Amino acid sequence: MKTAVFVERDGILNHDCVAGNKPVSPLSLHQLAPRTEAVEPLRQLKSAGFLLIATTHQPMLSGGGLDRRELERMHDTLRRIFNLDDIFICPHDVADCCPCRKPKPGLILEAAFKWHINLNQSFVLGNKWQDAEAADNAGCLSLLIDSPWIGHGHHDIVLPTVAEAALKIVHLHCEHRPLAPAG
Ligand SMILES: [Zn+2]
């Protein structure tokens, strides 16, 4: 079984666009602003043996406000910059009551099935309360980067930066890794 860090795309891999006081997703490659400060921390997670799996809600896909080819162009860019293993997308709106929109754990469970991931040894890295709830529902530990959207519900660990979160994950991972048999 493998271990993974599930990374919420908006807010961790690219900057949240903000409309009013709500975070919204970029709709074109032109609007996509990768968070380059996350490159080195995610590289460290990859060298520690984690799969890097991005998750994202893109309800504009089903609504027609987001072009699928444009989304693919954005995701190709993110895959290249962050060396991602996979990206899982929930294309539904709240009203669809789908199983994959966070805080439901569907995207994480789908990824775990495809990649044979041990969720109890895996982590969710995000910056919104839905990420912490989804992690809890999937049996992963969550690390939230502090933002206006972390809410007051279930939290495991909240830290100021992705770099600190990555260090914490590596430490927790080493503590819990079973010792190799002697000899
Ligand atoms: Zn969905």
Features:
183 residues, Rossmann fold, six-stranded parallel beta sheet, alpha/beta, 19% strand, binds zinc ion
Could you describe the 3D structure shown?
With 183 residues, the chain is of the alpha/beta class. The protein has one domain: 3-Layer(aba) Sandwich (Rossmann fold), CATH 3.40.50. The chain has six helices and eight strands. The protein has helices at 39-47, 59-63, 68-82, 106-115, 129-138, 162-176, and strands at 4-8, 17-19, 22-24, 51-57, 86-90, 123-126, 141-145, 157-159. It has a six-stranded parallel sheet, with helices on both faces. α1 runs parallel beside α6. It is globular and about 55 Å long. It starts with a strand and ends in a 7-residue tail after the last helix.
Indicate the low-confidence ranges by residue numbers.
none
Structural class: alpha/beta
CATH superfamily: HAD superfamily/HAD-like
Number of helices: 6
User: What's the number of structural domains?
Assistant: 1
The number of E-state strands comes to 8
Return Rg in Å: 16 Å
Report the span from N to C terminus.
23 Å
What is the global morphology? globular
Write the layout of secondary structure elements.
Blueprint: E1 4-8, E2 17-19, E3 22-24, H1 39-47, E4 51-57, H2 59-63, H3 68-82, E5 86-90, H4 106-115, E6 123-126, H5 129-138, E7 141-145, E8 157-159, H6 162-176
Parallel strand pairs: 1-4, 1-6, 4-5, 6-7, 7-8
Antiparallel strand pairs: 2-3
The protein binds zinc ion.
Concise synopsis of the structure shown:
This protein is an alpha/beta fold. 35% of the residues lie in helices and 19% in strands.
